[in-house]
Amino acid sequence: MSLRTARKNIVSRGVMFALAATSVTSVQAIAEEGAEEIERIAVTGSRISRTDIETASPVTVISSDFIAKSGFTSVQEILAMQPAAAGMSLGATSNNGSGGSATVNLRGMGSQRTLVLLNGRRMVASGTGADSSVDLNTIPVSMIQSIEILKDGASAIYGSDAIAGVINIITKKDFEGTEITADGSITDKGDGESGGFSILHGSEFAGGNLVLGVQYSKRGEVIQSDRDFVPAGESSFIPGGSLGGMMPDGNGDFKPRDESYDYTTSSYAQTPNELLSLFTSFNSEIADDTELSIDLMYTRRESNQQMAPQPANIDLITSKIDPTYIKGIQDVYDELNSDIADSDDHYVIGDTINYRRRMTDAGPRIYGQETDTYRASVALTGYLSNDAQWDMSATYGRNDSKDSVANSIHAGNMEKSIYANPDDWFSGKPMDNDFLASEKIMYTEENQGGNEQFILAAGYSGISESDIGYAVGVESRFESGYYTPDLITQAGDSTAAQQAPTEGNYSVQSIYGEISVPVTDSFTVEAATRYDNYSTFGGAATWKLGATYTIIDGLMFRAVAATGFRAPNVSELYGGNTGSFDYLDDPWGNELDQQIKVNYTSDADLQPEESESFTAGVVWEIADGLSTTMDYWSFDITNAISRVNVQAEMNKCKKGDAVACATININIISEGDLSNMTAMLTNIGHQKTSGIDWNVSYTAGIFRVTLDTTYLLEFVEDDISYEGTIDGNMGGYSQLKSNLSISADISEDWNLLYTANYIQGMDGVNYGDEFTTDDVVYHNISTAYHVNDAWQVTGGIKNLFDTEPEEVPNGNDMNTVPNIYDVVGRIFFVNTSYKF
User: Fold this and answer.
1) CA–CA dist 627, 799 (Å, integer)
2) Is the dihedral of CA 118, 566, 24, 773 positive or negative?
3) E-only strand ranges, 131-272
4) Which of 166, 428, 701, 764 has a CA that sits 20 to 30 A from residue 104's CA?
5) SS3 at position 476
6) CATH top-level class for 3-221+271-310+359-409+441-568+606-643+681-835?
7) How do residues 758-802 score in pLDDT, each as one tens digit?
8) Do 315 and 237 contact (CB within 8 A), yes or no?
């Protein structure tokens, strides 16, 4: 047996012991027992391979066993349940604007500020093109051994994007045999049917271990109106159309609009997708002191979102319309204003008149995405006689995407058709689908995009005879991205928002160093520094300083202070101007709908964000089987890349603040003309947040209990406090979130698991009216049974009591915030695995 093989076996036993301590726990809370068997292991947040797993930074580990028993089928679903998650993220219930992607948002600081790694190396940004974050759909659950969550700033270790923390997904290696897994789920309403299968095979090959895997999954849709808690939508865009706010009365005349359109009947509450992943890893000792590792992964995603038929909003030229219709509308206005004595106050139709129509005859808007994500990573690791090691790696990632929007409406052709066929458009009667097609009003929007990443890295690390740990390394990274919208969209001829192309790239060269010094047997100091040089803005230096102090056996204090940065990404630097329909409250009262168009612009001269973070806490093994951790954390981001709070600027503009009006491009004398409202990316943002994490883990007999809690002390962005609030645009910042897990091994073959997810109520404001959501607890149960040594069956119920989401009047969908609350309801799931 080689020296490396012996080390690997020792390390494997040590890590398995650590993970077995609890299904979901802080790494540092693991008992000391058996630590002497662990020789050298890698810990997320450090480049130094250590002889223990106690570091100054808090890390949470989620094991594959817990994932399987909980019925999780996606990485996003796993991470969204964590108390440290807040704000707004994308997932299965993000129907409007998600592009089918799934993201994680640690501390509510934005998904772009959470770094996602696969086996310690960066994942390529993935989605529909020029993306700022990783699409978690690209990582198949069946290949996961564990997920490590570093809840601390780590720019000094990993560089840009690790401001809020790091998600490191560890894949299965050294796997032998064949394992076949199948799963399925359905809601208690009989919809949302989902299922999939995976095959994992591992064997000795060419002197090493080869793992091959395939996973397929299909998620079913749920329609919003099929849930009792969803109120009927009320849109001013109605199927029969309205001219100047007036609708046809059925007798050839007009009347004030007295109906609205329910858009929930054709919009998804849960979006469907299909995922196919192929993956492999190969690890081999090509010499007694050198190991080769290769990871390859490919994921194909086909996803859909569905929204109500396109709301067409067109300003018609009055002089091009048959005067009879204009006179009919004016007569209605005059009748409505007949009680106003001063005729000068009567409304008179001007040069343009607004026409609105819900294009139900074209059918619902069907958004579709086809994305292909590739990743290849090759690494060599060498072990030297002085117990040091070196490593070299090359990682390539690519994401290609095609997305479409069926039943889109060509605004220019629709306007021409209205002038040519006014009787058809102003009658209030349904439009013939063939007529719309012949007039070239209907079309399918076709867009393309992609991302590319290439990384070369080399490092050297070790532990001296005096137990001083050290690591140094260099890295070179190239990133590029593009997004090309449909030509009709680029030209502004669609009834959807106009969007310009995005394309750009940058490169960065980095050097880093890290050291861990045991000052005494009980006191250890850690330090790290990193310098990154970007082709876009220049250099950025970061540092980290931490310490651990063991008071007595089983009681340790830890603290870390660090600086961080986030470089502007491709879409922020080179993003084409894009229209976004945001949920806003018009203080002038001119807009008929909450969704108001805001023009999003980028800036090629953006500078990096800067951050300071601090954590301090205690790790206490209170008694045999009972341990706890408590950590205070704070993050302070300056020079943040963000857009101004449009709602706040609108409110200030209404009060006469000329600067606020200019900031979002509202003419101060326009009486609330929001037609050119703009929000530009700038470095003027500021974000500050702090809180307390508390974890308790208890094992006694057949029971294992874990309580994981986050208490949010403050969250301030651009001088606005969000702690304890919920909003359709910002998401939710509950001050108290907690997960309880109780696992019971009834017998050697039978396990029961109960979990509860608690979200404290939050406050919000809608059109000046305050509201409060109640506390929510989601209960989940499952059971796992080993039929024999090879066959295991797991079944359970998510959201056991079918708890409905809280009403959020300014929510972004279904009168709530879907990424905070469960909008699908009770789900029954079952999965089975067979290994031979």
Assistant:
1) 29
2) negative
3) 144-150, 165-171, 177-187, 194-205, 208-219, 222-223, 242-243, 246-248, 254-256, 268-270
4) 764
5) strand
6) mainly beta
7) 999 999 998 889 999 999 999 999 999 999 999 999 999 999 999
8) no
